[in-house]
Design goal:
With 474 residues, the chain is an alpha/beta fold. It has 13 helices and 21 strands. A seven-stranded mixed beta sheet has the order 5-6-7-8-9-20-21, covered by helices on one side. A six-stranded parallel beta sheet has the order 14-13-15-10-16-19, sandwiched between helices. Strands 1-2-3-4 form a four-stranded parallel beta sheet. The structure holds zinc ion.
Length: 474
């Protein structure tokens, strides 16, 4: 902000190879490799690990400032950091508790849409305001207003964080900011357009129907926060509508229970298995904070439905129960849907399912999220349909299970959504920095934005930090 004051927006772990300009994340990348001098505060846009995963290292490096985030994020963040601490530092319960206490003292929950004074000196007035980003519960984009009383200079910088897709379930879509002089915007899906929600849900239903007709398991690798809850929400709706139409069909005298001699899929009793203790905890917070849901989700609630806690939903907690579930589903021919993490199959419980099930054509893997280059998820996605293999722990696993991808299912805005975030502003930025995306995605978004500026006969510096040789973030 000036020579003495800096603001840190997010402090995450790199996921996969392409999301970090330096290449693959290694242990060395965890350490804080920048100076903490002058950093007055950390703003956490949302609690995905690639945005907050390095907070433990930041604190270990001596960062003393507050961690600013939205009210829902303030509830989710300790859960995420507890997990990160257990993975990276210690599982000793006393240490974990001490650490959580420290975290909770640092967190400052900011209500959405309200300005917060960060710095108020003769040289600099800095205010920040969080707005809903529609990406996951608690996600925010950050407006930073800087005024330099001595020179009279003013500027507004907007950091998008991750932006949600307009048709994402559960949360309302993000609205464009009023204005920005400088915009730092994500570009994960800068080169793609999503399907609309209705056809995406129809495809989900079709894949599930097909996959489950051969008495197998559908494995859905999903991130604990966001996509898991969206999926549960869509599954509840599919089951709800199927149950309604089944009860209409099975009036006395009708024989709708069999088609071509194959027992029809019993949607009402189809188990949806959430095998991720972390995802279960997040799902509870999502349920608790229903005041942040969108109109559709709240209407379902008002009708007595439980979009995130329905009868078919089974949660698996202990590691033993998890192993038992893997065995049971491998050995029986009971159709089931399993949601387990992590989302790119690089570690976590999903790996046990994949090892046990990839070799059998009875099972299906359904990708609903972004698979970064270099992750097993990407390998399965690419080589699965060609009867290829994937490696886990140095061992080859042949892929005979069917592999599907439902591309439109995503918690990120697509190119159109990202472009609108800019063009729906009253005053467009004169500098845009594209971050958080593969090179092709960033280049495509840059081209799309340049085109809109040309249409408006205006101009902006559109920078791709790490790709062109512009220096990093300010
Ligand atoms: Zn995110």
């Amino acid at each position: 902000m000036d020579d003495e004051h800096a603001l840190l927006i997010d402090c995450g772990l790199f996921q996969g190879a392409e999301t970090s300009p330096e290449g693959r994340a290694g242990a060395g990348k965890l350490a804080i490799d920048f100076s903490l001098d002058g950093i007055k505060a950390l703003v956490a846009t949302h609690v995905h690990i690639d945005h907050v995963g390095r907070i433990p290292y930041l604190l270990a490096a001596g960062f003393k400032g507050p961690i600013l985030c939205s009210e829902p994020s303030a509830k989710l963040l300790p859960i995420v950091l507890e997990d990160a601490f257990k993975l990276g530092f210690s599982r000793d319960q006393k240490q974990v508790e001490r650490y959580l206490k420290l975290i909770e003292q640092r967190i400052v929950a900011l209500p959405y849409k309200q300005w917060f004074t960060l710095i108020d000196t003769k040289q600099l007035n800095a205010h920040i305001r969080l707005q809903r980003a529609g990406h996951i519960l608690g996600s925010a984009y950050v407006e930073v207003d800087l005024q330099y009383p001595e020179t009279g200079e003013k500027k507004r910088i907007v950091f998008s964080g991750d932006l949600g897709a307009p048709h994402a379930p559960i949360l309302p879509a993000p609205k464009a900011p009023y204005k920005a002089d400088i915009l730092v915007i994500e570009s994960t899906y800068g080169d793609r357009l999503h399907e609309d929600r209705r056809s995406r849900r129809a495809r989900l239903e079709k894949v599930l129907e097909h996959a489950l007709s051969n008495q197998g398991t559908v494995l859905i690798p999903a991130f604990s926060i966001g996509r898991t809850q969206e999926l549960l929400y869509e599954l509840e709706d599919i089951i709800h509508r199927r149950a309604l139409s089944e009860s209409a069909k099975t009036q006395p005298g009708s024989s709708a229970s069999k088609t071509n001699g194959v027992p029809a899929l019993d949607w009402t009793n189809l188990p949806i298995i959430l095998d991720s203790p972390l995802a279960s905890r997040f799902t509870s917070v999502y349920r608790e904070l229903d005041q942040f849901w969108d109109a559709e989700a709240r209407a379902r609630l008002a009708k007595g439905r439980s979009p995130l806690a329905f009868r078919n939903l089974l949660t698996v907690d202990s590691h033993q129960a998890h192993l038992a579930m893997v065995n049971r589903l491998t050995q029986t021919a009971q159709p089931a849907i399993v949601i387990s993490g992590n989302g790119m199959c690089s570690s976590g419980r999903i790996v046990n399912y994949l090892k046990a099930m990839l070799g059998n054509e009875r099972h299906d893997v359904l990708f609903v999220g972004y698979q970064a280059e270099g992750t097993p998820g990407r390998q399965i996605q690419r080589f699965g349909p060609r009867s290829g293999y994937v490696e886990f722990d140095g061992q080859r696993y042949d892929i005979r299970a069917q592999v599907h991808t439902i591309g439109g299912y995503s918690a990120h805005a697509d190119q159109l959504g990202l472009v609108r975030f800019v063009t729906h502003m009253s005053a467009w930025p004169n500098e845009i920095r594209l971050v958080h995306g593969d090179k092709p995605a960033r280049r495509a978004l840059a081209d799309a934005l340049r085109e809109r500026y040309v249409d408006q006969s205006s101009d902006a510096d559109i920078l791709l930090p790490g790709i062109d040789e512009e220096t990093g973030m300010g």
